[in-house]
Q: What sequence folds into this?
């Protein structure tokens, strides 16, 4: 019963496009279904989780749950959902532009639907295959599959699917400069879009016709179609403006009424206070004003002096006492200054540079690396110790993008291998909860330790991120033990350019986790 309730909540939030909340309830339902040993319910939830992770663009998790769902349905001898599983896998590969893999799974789905005589599903598979072959630069096969899809959708009167198939045929023909075919299907798509009141699709169909008539030199028809497009766009803009004006008007009226009520209440309160205190405290107020003014001048003067002293102290305090480079304290202070992400980067070959090369040469190399990292990563870079740097970003980016930027890092004209741990900031979705700097730094240390454990033949990164429903209690001391629990329960997601199974976590952190345990 509880699993069914969680599933219903997941479906509700999915319908509202609140994917993170839907994920929370689907995971809860999946855990409960595992306890109740309901294989069918578990298989359906695996398929739903695969679709949800696909929509969240978490490709590895989507593929993992899709294959689990396939195994479950095969055990049940229940082929009805196998086609959906294959289609999810195919669309994941399509989003990653791995079109050959996508075609393999679309064909598998097509065989299953043909066996089950699911005609509409076959039409959708033909449509998807047509798109894949088009993306691979094979318009002949693309048109062959799309015409098969067209036949099915017309026979079944599935106009909602048919309009998109007609548009795709027009797009393929447009790319092949087959103008008569473009006009035929673009005009059919136009009629269907008008019938279904699909303005965006109508505009696309008109655009293909404009291209075709331009190529044929029919300028008069091009002008007429462009007028249609202009009228359509003006109508869309007018509708959007009307909706926005109505919304703004309602909000403005509410704000004005609230402001008036507040002003009247404040005025009434002030007048009552003035009437109660006017005759008794005028003299005392004047005296207090004089004293307060003098004291404020004194405080301002002292505040200015203290600010100057503090600026000098802070400048000294945020630099490393040995290398005189921006150091650990500067890194900690910068984290809360308009920061979107932080990283802890290690150059293993430089860890013992101060002992191998001496203070002078090691400091020069540390400074050179710091400037190169700042240039390549476009971040604020801080020297924490030989070979270890803290990076603070003010722009939105992810760990994969940072790794790409660091590919050109060299020292003495030799490429350098790097490892780094990466977390977004703020780490928790609840921005009212501000994690201490020590917690954030130790979280980075765990991620960097995981990255350093991967094979050293190439550069690696490990990024940790919390889901929207992750409780703040996970980020408390002892932090490594708490992070263990968070990873085990699926509250913390791990991303890496290496193989997750090859990560060797610190023994006290991950010793309780099985080698075959899935980590989100």
A:
């Amino acid at each position: 019963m509880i699993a069914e309730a969680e599933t219903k909540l997941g479906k509700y939030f999915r319908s509202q496009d609140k994917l993170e909340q839907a994920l929370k309830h689907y995971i809860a339902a999946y855990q409960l279904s595992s306890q109740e040993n309901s294989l069918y319910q578990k298989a359906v939830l695996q398929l739903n989780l695969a679709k949800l992770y696909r929509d969240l663009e978490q490709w590895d998790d989507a593929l993992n749950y899709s294959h689990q769902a396939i195994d479950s349905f095969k055990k049940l001898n229940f082929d009805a959902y196998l086609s959906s599983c294959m289609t999810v896998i195919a669309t994941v590969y399509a989003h990653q532009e791995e079109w050959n893999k996508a075609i393999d799974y679309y064909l598998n789905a097509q065989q299953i639907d043909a066996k089950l005589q699911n005609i509409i599903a076959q039409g959708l598979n033909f449509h998807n295959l047509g798109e894949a072959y088009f993306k691979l630069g094979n318009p002949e096969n693309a048109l062959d599959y799309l015409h098969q899809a067209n036949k099915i959708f017309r026979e079944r009167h599935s106009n909602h699917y048919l309009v998109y198939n007609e548009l795709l045929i027009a797009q393929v023909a447009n790319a092949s400069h087959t103008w008569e075919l473009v006009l035929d299907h673009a005009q059919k798509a136009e009629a269907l879009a008008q019938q279904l009141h699909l303005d965006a699709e109508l505009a696309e169909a008109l655009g293909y016709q404009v291209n075709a008539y331009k190529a044929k030199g029919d300028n008069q028809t091009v002008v007429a179609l462009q007028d249609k497009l202009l009228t359509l766009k003006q109508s869309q803009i007018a509708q959007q403006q009307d909706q926005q004006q109505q919304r703004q008007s309602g909000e403005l009226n509410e704000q004005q009424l609230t402001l008036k009520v507040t002003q009247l209440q404040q005025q009434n309160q002030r007048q009552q206070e003035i009437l109660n205190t006017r005759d008794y405290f005028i003299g005392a107020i004047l005296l207090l004003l004089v004293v307060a003014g003098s004291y404020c001048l004194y405080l301002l003067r002292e505040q200015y002096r203290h600010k100057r002293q503090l600026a000098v102290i802070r400048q000294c305090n945020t630099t490393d006492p040995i290398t005189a480079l921006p150091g650990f304290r500067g890194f900690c202070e910068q984290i809360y200054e308009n920061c979107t992400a932080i990283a802890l980067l290690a150059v293993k070959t430089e860890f013992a540079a101060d002992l191998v090369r001496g203070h002078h040469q090691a400091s020069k190399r540390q400074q050179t690396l710091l400037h190169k990292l700042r240039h390549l990563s476009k971040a604020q870079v801080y020297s924490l110790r030989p070979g270890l740097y803290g990076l603070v970003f003010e722009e939105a980016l992810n760990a994969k993008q940072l790794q790409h930027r660091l590919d050109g890092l060299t020292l003495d004209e030799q490429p350098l291998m790097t490892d780094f741990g990466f977390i977004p900031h703020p780490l928790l979705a609840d921005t009212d909860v501000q994690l201490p700097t020590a917690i954030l730094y130790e979280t980075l240390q765990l991620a960097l330790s995981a990255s350093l454990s991967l094979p050293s033949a190439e550069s690696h990164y490990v990024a940790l991120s919390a889901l929207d429903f992750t409780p703040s209690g996970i980020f408390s001391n002892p932090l490594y033990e708490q992070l263990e629990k968070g990873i085990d329960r699926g509250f913390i997601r791990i991303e890496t350019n290496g193989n997750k199974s090859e990560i060797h976590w610190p023994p006290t952190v991950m010793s309780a986790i099985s080698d075959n345990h899935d980590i989100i």
